[in-house]
Amino acid sequence: MKKTSLMTLAVCVAAVIGTVPAFAAPALKVNLPYALTFGNVTLPAGECTVTDTKDNGHETFFVIRSLQGPAVDVMMERNDASDKKNESSAIELRQVGDKYELSGVRIEGVSYKVSQ
């Protein structure tokens, strides 16, 4: 019985590991013109990656990671009104006082806005 349970667990783990690359989205590489603030975390200006880690249909979780180290998890929701077919990928910033915040991401024409 114990051997069967371990074998079943091993098969399930192998199946999950085998399917992860099929669902993994490539990271969007961007060059931040300004430092971005997310709560207590500030991502410095410069190169970073934006990776879609979990898509629930309406909401999506992204990891934004600076090549200099800091990273943040951001929940965003689809913004169908801002979808632009045949548009390139980009990040959208807004200035709040003397700081910049992320307001959205567009990946291959599909727009997302930061959830409030």
Topology of helices and strands:
Blueprint: H1 2-23, E1 28-32, E2 36-38, E3 41-43, E4 46-55, E5 59-66, E6 71-78, E7 90-96, E8 99-107, E9 110-114
Antiparallel strand pairs: 1-4, 2-3, 4-5, 5-6, 6-9, 7-8, 8-9
Question: What can you tell me about this protein's structure?
Answer:
The chain is an alpha+beta fold. The chain has one domain. It is 19% helix and 50% strand. The radius of gyration is 18 Å and the shape is globular. The termini are far apart.
Short summary:
The protein has 116 residues and is an alpha+beta fold. Helices cover 19% and strands 50% of the residues.
The percent range for helix content is 10-25%
Shape: globular
Determine the N-to-C terminus distance. Answer: 49 Å
Instruction: Give the number of domains.
Output: 1
The stretches of 5 or more residues where confidence is low (pLDDT under 50) are 1-23
SS-based structural class? alpha+beta
List keywords for this structure.
single chain; 116 residues; alpha+beta; two-stranded antiparallel sheet
